[in-house]
Design brief:
The complex is a heterodimer of chains A (about 260) and B (about 300). Chain A is mainly alpha-helical and about 260 residues long. Chain A has 12 helices and no strands. The longest helix of chain A is centred in the middle third of the chain and has 33 residues. Chain B is α/β, with parallel strands linked by helices and about 300 residues long. Helix content of chain B is about 35%, strand content about 30%. The longest helix of chain B has 16 residues. The chains are: A mainly alpha (about 260), B alpha/beta (about 300). At the A-B interface, α1 and α7 of A face α2 and α3 of B.
Chain lengths: ~260, ~300
């Protein structure tokens, strides 16, 4: 079970991963099952009546392909939010949740540097969210041929990587806030507020030309600009885990020095 | 191994305006059981949490087994065992799995030692922590504090929740441990518990050390509140106690004589013996009251 803090962090996520893995797979399956009847309808005729800004904002152009359909229906909001919620929930629990429950102080009196404890926990979260990404990729690979969606393995891999990355960004942010403050409410609230603000910024950038620059600071732009079900992985996706890693690195010295109240 | 297990110089912890610990100078010799005594909220846990590196001192410094508590925390953690005042393990893990987890994090723990402690405390290791009673949880905490046989164990209110039989076993474990040349630092708010166990005692009140003495000196200073009722309900006890320096606050109300005794009870019992005593009740003066009577004028 727990040879070190990293494996223990993974072990702690086993139930959550099972539940969320089923949730992610079921969501994809449900949406894919709609595809055959959706693709029969003449969607382009319907979409012509919508303003082009809206079509762009919700990534609706290209809904006449299986990948385009999933990009619009799942990857623009539903799946990123699922990955963020899982990652923030677990990330805050791994450090602040344990601290508030009183189990962290025992670990912090073991002969292990606090920075290593933090890295192990962050690593456990990253791998945990990665497992969820793997479930996503495998589910896509299975349902795509069944429902004739023509999603390539390559595109499924890129999409899974992108969801993994957006989960890592906000999950590691939660780990960082938890490590710096020890408070679970903040560790959930701060990343959640940033996620909500960056989604608003993303929408604003899509709808208002003058605000287009906002897209560059929104992880939702980074997470959707390549599709994410698409033939290539844009460089922008790498900014997401990078922001998370920087946040944890910044929190590490604070975590090493701060009081662990009883 | 140094002769001094713990030494603090002007160790202080403030939380804003609140002074939890106010410049404590303390030296704990190696190889003793050291009792750290004080009412709840006096600063006992704050000192222990500073000594195990969970809190950062506001000012002052401390060395534990020669390791600075701020700059040498890793070596410090290798050499100590620690039982928090409110010990909690993962509630979904069995006691055995949790102990195994901590042992792996530490490394180099002899499983035979752990097993022997588990047997001494009669701990069921197959139950999940969340389902254990408070006493059994405390046993898990005690086992993990001792299992790697560290030269120094710091225990914050270790006997909380233990039944009397287990308290006795705990005392035996601590004594064996001390006899093997190790040091035990434990806090308590119960005077009699510390008296039964400790070689030396420090008393803390409002974040300050007010006494640091051998346990014999403390026993001499202990006070008891006594009530004596004679068969004939007379106040002859009052006269019998006259002239005893250790007796104070003598009163007779409704045929019962009450008074306080400082130190030994021997003289009192000698005077009472011929009086056909029907009822004799002696209670140790509450620690907080003891502090108030001793140090009330200082605060």
């Amino acid at each position: 079970m727990g040879a070190n803090v990293f494996t223990k962090s993974l072990w702690d996520q086993r139930r959550g991963l099972l539940g969320w893995g089923i949730g992610v797979a079921a969501t994809i399956l449900a949406m894919a099952a709609i595809w055959p009847s959706f693709s029969d309808a003449d969607i382009n005729a319907v979409l012509e009546n919508y303003p082009s800004e809206l079509l762009e904002a919700f990534n609706v152009q290209g809904m006449n392909t299986g990948a385009g359909f999933l990009n619009a229906e799942l990857f623009s909001v539903v799946l990123p939010v699922m990955f963020i919620v899982y990652a923030v929930g677990r990330g805050s629990r791994l450090v602040a949740g344990e601290e508030e429950a009183g189990t962290l102080e025992m670990i912090l009196t073991m002969p292990i540097p606090r920075s290593r404890v933090l890295v192990h926990k962050a690593g456990g979260l990253v791998v945990g969210v990665g497992v969820l990404g793997l479930v996503l990729a495998v589910t896509l690979a299975i349902v795509s041929p069944i429902f004739g969606m023509d999603v390539t393995l390559r595109a499924a891999g890129f999409a899974a990587l992108t969801q993994w990355f957006i989960g890592c960004e906000f999950g590691l942010l939660a780990v960082a806030v938890a490590a710096a403050t020890g408070r679970r409410s903040l560790a959930v609230g701060v990343p959640a507020a940033i996620a909500a603000a960056s989604y608003v910024a993303f929408l604003a950038a899509q709808l208002v030309d003058a605000l287009q620059w906002l897209r560059w600071i929104s992880p939702f732009h980074a997470a959707t600009t390549g599709g994410p079900l698409g033939p290539a992985l844009p460089w922008l996706v790498w900014t997401m885990p990078a922001v998370g890693v920087v946040a944890v690195a910044a929190a590490a010295p604070v975590f090493s020095r701060r009081d662990i109240p009883g | 191994m140094t002769d001094v297990a713990i030494s603090t110089i002007g160790l202080a912890k403030h939380y804003g305006d609140l002074v939890a610990l106010d410049g404590v100078d303390l030296e704990v010799p190696a190889g003793v059981v050291f009792g750290f005594l004080g009412p709840n909220g006096a600063g006992k846990s704050t000192l222990i949490r500073l000594l195990v590196g969970l809190l950062q001192p506001t000012s002052g410094s401390a060395q534990v087994l020669g390791h600075d508590i701020v700059s040498d925390r890793l070596a410090l953690h290798r050499d100590i065992g620690y039982l928090p005042g409110d010990f909690v393990a993962d509630k979904h893990l069995t006691a055995g799995a949790y102990l195994d987890h901590l042992a792996r994090l530490r490394g180099g723990v002899d499983s035979a030692e752990t097993q022997s402690l588990i047997e001494r405390f009669g701990l069921r290791t197959d139950k999940v922590f969340g389902s254990l009673s408070h006493g059994n949880r405390q046993k898990v905490g005690l086992v993990q504090a001792f299992m790697h046989r560290p030269p120094l164990v710091l225990l914050d209110e270790p006997t909380q929740g233990l039944d009397p039989l287990m308290q006795r076993e705990f005392i035996d474990v601590v004594r064996d441990y001390r006899d093997a040349g190790n040091t035990v630092f434990l806090s308590s708010h119960v005077l009699s518990e510390v008296q039964a166990l400790a070689d030396r005692v420090a008393i803390v009140r409002d974040g300050r050390l007010v006494m640091n003495a051998g346990v014999d000196e403390l026993r001499a200073a202990a006070r008891h509140h006594v009530e004596v009722t004679l068969e004939d309900r007379s106040d002859r006890a009052v006269a019998a106690l006259e002239g005893l320096e250790s007796v104070r606050e003598v009163r007779n109300v409704g045929g019962t004589t009450s008074f306080t005794v400082e130190g030994s009870m021997a003289d009192v019992l000698e005077r009472m013996a011929p009086l056909s005593v029907e009822r004799f009740v002696s209670a140790e003066v509450d620690l907080a009251d003891l502090f108030l009577s001793y140090y009330g004028d200082e605060s």
